[in-house]
UniProtKB/TrEMBL annotation:
Domain annotation HTH gntR-type: ranges: 16-84
Keyword set, alphabetical order: DNA-binding, Transcription, Transcription regulation
Pfam families, per database record: GntR
Keyword ATP-binding: no
Organism annotation: Saccharopolyspora endophytica
Recorded superkingdom: Bacteria
Stated name of the protein: GntR family transcriptional regulator
């Protein structure tokens, strides 16, 4: 999967929080299989650049998906798509 700009996927005028829009976008990629189990995501600062937002906004989206069990954050290694629960 290529990580070109996704800034057009964020609507700053929407009543939905920007971090939620990013989480929804990443969730859709995970659920569609575009991001498969074990796929590594860019770092928080890189995701911020990709989505055209502050790094903390991107990190909040990643943390929300981690809390849902969709991502695993391994300290010093990165963020990965978690295996599907059976």
């Amino acid at each position: 999967m290529s990580w070109e700009s996704r800034a057009d996927r964020v609507d700053h005028e929407s009543p939905e929080y920007v971090w939620q829009q990013i989480a929804d976008d990443l969730r859709a990629d995970i659920e569609s299989g575009e991001l498969s189990a074990g796929s590594r995501l860019p770092s928080g600062p890189e995701l911020g650049e990709i989505y055209g937002v502050a790094r903390l906004t991107a990190i909040k989206a990643v943390n929300a998906l981690r809390d849902e069990g969709l991502l695993k954050v391994l300290s010093g290694k990165g963020t990965f798509v978690a295996p599907k629960k059976s």
